[in-house]
Specification:
Distance between the termini: 30 Å
Keywords: Aminotransferase, Cytoplasm, Glutamine amidotransferase, Repeat, Transferase
Bound molecules: 5-amino-5-deoxy-1-O-phosphono-D-mannitol
Subcellular location: Cytoplasm
Function: Catalyzes the first step in hexosamine metabolism, converting fructose-6P into glucosamine-6P using glutamine as a nitrogen source.
Largest sheet: 5 strands, parallel
Strand order of the largest sheet: 4-3-5-6-7
GO molecular function: glutamine-fructose-6-phosphate transaminase (isomerizing) activity
Order of helices and strands: HHEEHEHEHEHEHEHHEHEEHEEH
Number of helices: 12
Structural class: alpha/beta
Subunit structure: Homodimer.
Number of strands: 12
């Protein structure tokens, strides 16, 4: 039931705040993460020396965001691999490897086969999944469910923010079990997470109509580029994927630092480029770098659409359009910055008269290899 919304996707984007809130619910107590599903696994978490995240598509981008936080908090090296690449290269895994799979459906065949492979080769497995009782969690040693609620539209939106939330909870839990961070820091990160639903709600309330209108003006666009740095990089990739799958527009995401190693050659007058801008107060150094990337592409005629913190005065005169997000700590910005990109892709596809719930050639869950 679309509940009065024009599409399941519109409904599901509107549910992004609840997806985060429900994934946090019941899992925080006194400034600590408490995940009943992970009870009794302390020894497993103490014994690992690497983490490999496996997933496909949007779930893999959630994994890429998670990597930054999990490494920072646990000091365990984290690799993120596309599930379909994982088992074809004889990966180095063993009992000290935790393989974390991420899947909304829990039925993606590539991810399932990778989890089975990891198990057979002695790795420990943990599944982050949105669908109770699905096949992938049943094949794993441990499960952390995302509570985004059923996601019907082919494009994954609310599951993405829920996946990042679950990864962060898992990362904080492992970090505390191993004594890698203290109570105060964990509590501060948890407070940041708890503030996310309200901040996403603000974006939906203040920016959605404007972004939809702006997307409508761009209905004839043939190609869009997305730039980001650090945690903004996987968000750029996610923005590009959504535009491809929903609006059938050529789109590419790049790490901003990679520009001068090739992609800047693509910039010609009028080329729209979305730039995920880090907070000037929270990440001053990275902010400076991203602003200088904006200057470089603008000097070559790019049309810059910045996703930036409200109050970021530096980007305003350098951008053709600014989509505003509330302030958040560096690791929590992706949970906000992705929302305007979801709205934009949906708005552009709608303006082109396309079915946003069921894009051509795609299935909601890919149960073949
Ligand atoms: O069900 P899963 O999370 O395993 O699905 C993974 C991908 O197929 C999925 O995220 C896909 O990339 C989406 N259509 C992207 O919006």
């Amino acid at each position: 039931d679309k509940g009065g919304w024009s599409s399941f996707m519109a409904k599901e984007v509107s549910e992004e705040p609840e997806a985060v809130a429900n994934t946090l619910r019941g899992r925080i107590r006194g400034g600590e993460v408490v995940i009943p599903e992970l009870d009794g696994l302390d020894e497993l978490f103490q014994g690992i020396s690497r983490i490999i995240v496996i997933a496909c598509g949007t779930a893999a981008y959630a994994g890429q965001v998670g990597k930054y936080a999990i490494e920072q908090w646990t000091r365990i090296p984290v690799d993120v691999e596309l599930a379909h690449e994982f088992r074809y290269r004889d990966p180095v895994i063993g009992p000290d490897t935790l393989v974390v799979s991420i899947s909304q459906s829990g039925e993606t065949m590539d991810t399932l086969m990778a989890v089975k492979y990891a198990r057979e080769h002695g790795a420990r497995t943990l599944s982050i999944c949105n669908t109770q009782g699905a096949t992938i969690p049943r094949e794993s040693d441990a499960i952390v469910y995302t509570h985004a609620g059923p996601e019907v539209a082919v494009a994954s939106t609310k599951a993405f923010v829920a996946q990042i939330t679950a990864l962060y909870l898992m990362g904080l839990h492992i970090a505390r079990v191993r004594g890698a961070i203290d109570h105060e820091s964990a509590a501060a990160h948890i407070a940041e997470l708890e503030a996310v639903p309200g901040k996403i709600a603000l974006i939906l309330e203040r920016e959605q109509p404007r972004i939809e209108q702006f997307a409508g003006w761009m209905a004839d666009t043939r190609s869009v580029l997305f730039l980001g740095r650090h945690v903004g990089f996987p968000i750029a990739l996610e923005g590009a994927l959504k535009l491809k799958e929903l609006a059938y527009i050529h789109a590419e995401g790049f790490a901003a630092g990679e520009l001068k190693h090739g992609p800047i050659a693509l910039i010609e007058p009028g080329q729209p480029v979305f730039v995920v801008v880090p907070s000037p107060s929270q990440s001053p150094e990275m902010h400076k770098k991203v602003v200088s990337s904006i200057e470089e592409i603008r000097a070559r005629g790019a049309r810059v659409i910045s996703i930036a913190e409200e109050g970021d005065a530096a980007v305003l005169p350098k951008s053709d359009e600014v989509l505003r997000i509330p302030m958040a700590g560096p690791l929590f910005e992706p949970l906000l910055a992705v929302v305007p990109l979801h709205i934009f892709a949906m708005g552009l596809a709608t303006a082109k008269g396309l079915d946003v719930d069921q894009p051509r050639n795609l299935a909601k869950s890919v149960t073949v290899e």
